[in-house]
């Protein structure tokens, strides 16, 4: 009898425990997840888990600077990093354009108020900003806003003291933002994410200077490389080490973002290009594009090449004399070949990746089209010197992008939830078409200039050979 009572008691206890667990799971499914910046935005934990799973499957490996462990649940992430969880929901949920616009506005207002007015400091805020920047094209925000968001991220990076090694406490009281212990791997990833993002902005947008690659940057790369806690860590390390060249290349530009002369004088520009080109080739990633990360690395490498050649050609074309025409032609040939390699790599991307590619890839594409336009204008002026087999025209590059976007649209389910995604892709197409229109305007300007210059030359000969009375010019008569 006692045994039966004991077994019955145990069964009752197990049943109660299972019932309690089931009730807890049911409560989590129906309970509301409130976004940190607006209590009117709610998700059930079940729907939030679905969105988080989609983020991990489709997007997370594009943002190696922010890692969310696979075993971390929505309640755990909400407890540890509520703003990061909200940012993930914001960029991943693209089924309602109106709601997404409201979510984005509230998110940016909350972040800016937290950093500027409330002076809050947390890794959660910085990681949320990095996620926001990584998929900026999925957000209904103007391009000019991106620079502001990035500067807010850099302000948070410095406030947390993550941009350098912790200062030793001996001899001087530490500031409130400085840390006494070694940075965590999450903090190192966030720092490298900021470093990489500023490099892309310096290369593609040219509205800020990149962070310097310091011994601390290399230390963060080495730590992540040795530990390799996550598969994406090596991609972040490779991107960071490759972009050590960004700051060096920017130094050969005629002027920086503040319109101040750079270190490398115009007389030594060709020497700088040769040395930096050799150093960049030493960092070139392997040619294998078996993974999407390999293709992203290759695109980053070609972007740095384009920046180097663009800087050299802009500096060279600003001079009235061209004593180094042979070197000039060599650089122009290399620039056209590098542009073609960029677009060839981009064409190899599978269309199913297109929508969720990080915004840095789109920035690099726009920069590549813009650079190609400038190179072709120089080649047009010297068309008898350029090998047409090593280049492509702007229209071909633009149509390649459009074809990829259309393939991506066809892969979407033609339901109401895909309309927002299609609109995002159409906006990307409109942006790249704008660069094609810019190229046509540039080309028309160059052709018009050449026609005017040729007419002026002919009129000068006629003025000298057949002088008109009263110092009149043939140019005046031709204009009538």
TrEMBL record:
Q: Which InterPro entries match?
A: prtT, XnlR_reg_dom
Q: Name one Pfam family in it.
A: Fungal_trans
Q: Where is this region: Disordered?
A: 1-31
**Primary location:** nucleus
Q: Name one GO cellular component term.
A: nucleus
Q: Where does the Xylanolytic transcriptional activator regulatory domain lie?
A: 116-205
Q: Tell whether DNA-binding is among the UniProt keywords.
A: yes
Which locations, inside or outside the cell, does it occupy?
Nucleus
| One Gene Ontology biological process | DNA-templated transcription
Where are stretches of biased composition, namely Polar residues? 7-16
Keywords from the UniProt entry: DNA-binding, Nucleus, Transcription, Transcription regulation, Zinc
Q: Please list the GO terms describing molecular function.
A: DNA-binding transcription factor activity, RNA polymerase II-specific; transcription cis-regulatory region binding; zinc ion binding
Q: Which domain of life is it from?
A: Eukaryota
PANTHER family, alphabetized = FINGER DOMAIN PROTEIN, PUTATIVE-RELATED, ZN(II)2CYS6 TRANSCRIPTION FACTOR (EUROFUNG)
Its name, as the record gives it, is: Xylanolytic transcriptional activator regulatory domain-containing protein
């Amino acid at each position: 009898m006692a045994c039966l009572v004991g077994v019955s008691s145990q069964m009752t206890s197990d049943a109660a425990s299972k019932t309690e667990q089931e009730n807890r799971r049911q409560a989590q499914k129906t309970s509301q997840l409130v976004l940190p910046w607006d209590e009117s935005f709610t998700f059930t934990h079940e729907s939030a888990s679905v969105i988080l799973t989609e983020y991990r499957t489709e997007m997370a490996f594009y943002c190696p600077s922010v890692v969310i462990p696979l075993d971390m649940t929505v309640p755990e992430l909400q407890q540890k990093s509520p703003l990061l969880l909200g940012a993930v929901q914001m960029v991943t949920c693209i089924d309602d354009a109106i709601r997404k616009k409201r979510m984005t506005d509230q998110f940016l207002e909350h972040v800016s108020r937290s950093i500027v007015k409330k002076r809050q400091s947390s890794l959660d805020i910085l990681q949320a900003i990095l996620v926001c920047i990584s998929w900026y094209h999925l957000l209904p925000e103007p391009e000019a806003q991106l620079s502001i968001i990035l500067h807010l991220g850099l302000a948070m990076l410095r406030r947390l003291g993550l941009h350098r090694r912790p200062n030793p406490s001996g001899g001087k009281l530490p500031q409130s933002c400085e840390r006494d212990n070694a940075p965590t791997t999450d903090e190192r990833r966030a720092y490298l994410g900021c470093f990489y993002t500023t490099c892309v902005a310096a290369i593609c947008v040219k509205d800020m200077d990149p962070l310097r690659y310091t011994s601390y940057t290399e230390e963060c790369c080495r730590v992540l490389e040795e530990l390799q806690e996550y598969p994406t860590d090596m991609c972040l390390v490779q991107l960071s080490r490759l972009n050590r060249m960004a700051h060096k290349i920017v130094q050969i530009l005629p002027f920086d973002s503040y319109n101040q002369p750079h270190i490398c004088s115009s007389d030594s520009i060709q020497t700088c290009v040769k040395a930096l080109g050799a150093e960049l080739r030493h960092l070139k990633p392997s040619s294998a594009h078996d993974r999407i990360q390999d293709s992203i690395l290759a695109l980053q490498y070609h972007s740095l090449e384009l920046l180097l050649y663009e800087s050299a050609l802009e500096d060279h074309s600003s001079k009235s004399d061209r004593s180094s025409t042979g070197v000039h032609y060599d650089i122009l040939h290399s620039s056209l070949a590098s542009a073609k390699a960029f677009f060839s790599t981009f064409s190899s991307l599978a269309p199913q990746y297109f929508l969720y590619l990080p915004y840095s890839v789109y920035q690099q594409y726009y920069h590549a089209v813009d650079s190609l336009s400038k190179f072709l204008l120089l080649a047009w002026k010297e068309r008898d010197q350029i090998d047409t087999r090593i280049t492509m025209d702007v229209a071909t590059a633009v149509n390649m992008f459009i074809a990829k976007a259309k393939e991506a649209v066809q892969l979407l389910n033609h339901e109401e939830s895909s309309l927002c995604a299609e609109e995002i892709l159409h906006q990307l197409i409109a942006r790249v078409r704008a660069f094609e229109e810019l190229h046509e305007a540039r080309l028309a300007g160059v052709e018009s200039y050449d026609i005017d210059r040729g007419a002026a030359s002919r009129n000068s000969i006629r003025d000298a050979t057949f002088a008109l009375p009263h110092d009149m010019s043939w140019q005046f008569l031709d204009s009538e």
